[in-house]
Amino acid sequence: MHATLLGVLGLALLGALHAQDSIPLQSDFQQDKLVGKWYSIGLASNSDWFKEKKHLMKMCTTVISATADGNLEVTSTYPKYGRRVGWVSQGCYIYTNPRWGSKHDINVVETNYNEYALVATQISKSTGSSTMVLLYS
């Protein structure tokens, strides 16, 4: 029931994000509490690529660890595509995909730090932009 409610929240957030220019951040974000292993349990996107390929996709495992400079390193491992590494700084980070040349502005929208994290990504590339929402548990 809790996961279904969060999934509906994620879809509602995706619709709201599509209507505005910026992705909200968790208020009073405490990045040290986000450290650990997370599993993707939900994903929604308005991208044409996602709509065409979603039946082939597998969820990722994400490990968030503290760095010496006070930021967080985010390593997501996808069964088909390998690892993607980015950095979190105060609830948001930017990742550039070298394979596709797309820029990902990623924000932690909401989390209780031990059960779920709702993460929204604004993806920009030469062919257009899209939004993706991930639910971690």
UniProtKB/TrEMBL annotation:
Any one GO BP annotation for this protein: prostaglandin biosynthetic process
Protein keywords: Cytoplasm, Disulfide bond, Endoplasmic reticulum, Fatty acid biosynthesis, Fatty acid metabolism, Glycoprotein, Golgi apparatus, Isomerase, Lipid biosynthesis, Lipid metabolism, Mast cell degranulation, Membrane, Nucleus, Prostaglandin biosynthesis, Prostaglandin metabolism, Secreted, Signal, Transport
Any Pfam family: Lipocalin
Listed Gene3D superfamilies: 2.40.128.20
PROSITE patterns xref list: LIPOCALIN
Catalytic reaction annotation: prostaglandin H2 = prostaglandin D2
Domain Lipocalin/cytosolic fatty-acid binding residues, every copy: 35-136
Keyword hit for Transmembrane helix: no
Highest taxon above the source species: Eukaryota
Family that this chain belongs to: Belongs to the calycin superfamily. Lipocalin family.
Full protein name: Prostaglandin-H2 D-isomerase
